[in-house]
Amino acid sequence: MYAFEIERPSTIADAVAALKTDDAQPLGGGQTLIPTLKARLAMPSALVSLSAIPEMKGICLSDDGMLCIGGATTHAKVAQEAAVHYPALAGLAAHIGDPAVRNRGTIGGSIANNDPSACYPAAALGSGATIITNTREIAADDFFEGMFGTALDEGEVITEVRFPIPQKANYQKFVQPASRFALVGVFVTKYADRVRVAVTGASDDGVFRWSEAEAALSADFSANALEGMTISADGMIADLHGSAAYRAHLVGVMTKRAVAAC
């Protein structure tokens, strides 16, 4: 590790102000950033920790029925406290990494990082969530911009994520056993007027919606509606863990399992 400054502001305003200095970088739970610093893939002169900001922590239900989760809320807290209102989201959080990761990693950090195999981006996109920052509100459909890419501006911080609660939902993850990331993960939700299917771990472009499956499930919300339906292997990730064709096949398998589990 190299030398750098670290600040621990107690308010969002102070954090935003600190991020305006030099090449300061926000620090959530550090589950991705710290290994990145150790490998010298990033070398900011200062880190601004978001872990001591009370207004960025916690889970509540809004007056309009949205599940509101502070950006600095850990995976473990989501797994524990979201279970009553959104069991599928709580179940997703409960199977991220291992206990050490779940007790340090944060929902805001995961969504801001937008790892192509991370779980939370699928939950946000699959739920049609709204990402709240210190300056604006961003629909999940407009937030994710390809592998590790997001709509966040320099110095912008995710303060909260708001999830509309579906009638039914389920997340199925085919786990890469060493990292516990999703080799392929599918988050399916059914609302009164729509069905959403979000896929993570499969595409070179990161998390995406499978619109053909959404259309089929909107007409008939059952695994049978997906029989014979396939997704192209073009643009799918191909590595030592699985070929592009294998991942494309897993998208179909995981989607059927998620619908059946609903």
From TrEMBL:
Domain called FAD-binding PCMH-type: residue spans: 1-168
One Pfam family here: FAD_binding_5
InterPro entries: CO_DH_flav_C, CO_DH_flav_C_dom_sf, Diverse_Substr_Oxidored, FAD-bd_PCMH, FAD-bd_PCMH-like_sf, FAD-bd_PCMH_sub1, FAD-bd_PCMH_sub2, Mopterin_DH_FAD-bd
Signal peptide extent: none
Keywords assigned: FAD, Flavoprotein, Oxidoreductase
Gene3D superfamilies: 3.30.465.10, CO dehydrogenase flavoprotein, C-terminal domain, Uridine Diphospho-n-acetylenolpyruvylglucosamine Reductase, domain 2
Name of the molecule in the record: Xanthine dehydrogenase family protein subunit M
Origin species: Yoonia phaeophyticola
